[in-house]
Fold:
Amino acid sequence: MLSERRLEVLRAIVQDYVGTEEPVGSKALTERHKLGVSPATVRNDMAVLEEEGYIAQPHTSAGRIPTDKGYRLFVDKLAGVKPLSSPERRAIQNFLDGAVDLDDVVGRTVRLLAQLTRQVAVVQYPSLTRSTVRHVELLSLAPARLMLVLITDTGRVEQRMVDCPAPFGETSLADLRARLNSRVVGRRFADVPQLVQDLPDSFEAEDRGTVSTVLATLLETLVEETEERLMIGGTANLTRFGHDFPLTIRPVLEALEEHVVLLKLLGEAKESGVTVRIGHENAHEGLNSTSVVSVGYGSGGEAVAKLGVVGPTRMDYPGTMGAVRAVARYVGQILAES
Structure:
């Protein structure tokens, strides 16, 4: 275990390196931080931190920089989540409050996160597998053609055309709409197939074919839409950190194009609380020089999806964690109210 003083030295090294982008020397540390000891003692502490693998010497200069292990200890033990200021919180609320639908919410969230953190923002669409049905609407377009509209508790709207085997009257349509909603509203998507399986039997023989067709379309919609979607923004922010990536930025950009990779990374985020993956903790090789800060968001205390940011390991962890957490909270409130 490191002593409290050495932990303070590590904290100071991380803060200075993140702030200045320059390797940190013992003389600069004692000048900038009230460590209460001589430069010689700080040099000794830095030698121990280097031996233990928390800091490293990038080249022959006297300065040291944090390693993945050093950042990990900093995040776990030394960094509090930095709360956003009142103006920042108001700005988040004002920016997100104007959203008109789910696509707009996700789009605004991506732009906001990228601006707040100056990193790459990734937002996963709410998963249908974790969603519940808010309403099923059936609209008559022609005697034997309907439109099925499925609305989720997270604001997703899915529309499908239904070609019926026979004309279907307005009275029958209203009856099907009412019975369908009475069974599925407020229920999880996973439960819907079982809840509606015997519904055709409760209709007159001439209507059963159409009822079965409508239900088949509804169930197809649930299956089709289980494919996870995400939105990404702020990739250009990475160009500001060119020197933070050892050889080239290309592997990072290639990894960001692989949505499967990003979904896997976000999937590792906890339901509540911020998850931080640093450097080589990211399984994908292209992201070994980055850190991923993510959190779950949703309404009613249950996460329906994840959001987060990707940036170089030299990042302002307290500020980034605070921004990610705050934005997730506001998005959850918007979903709950929508």
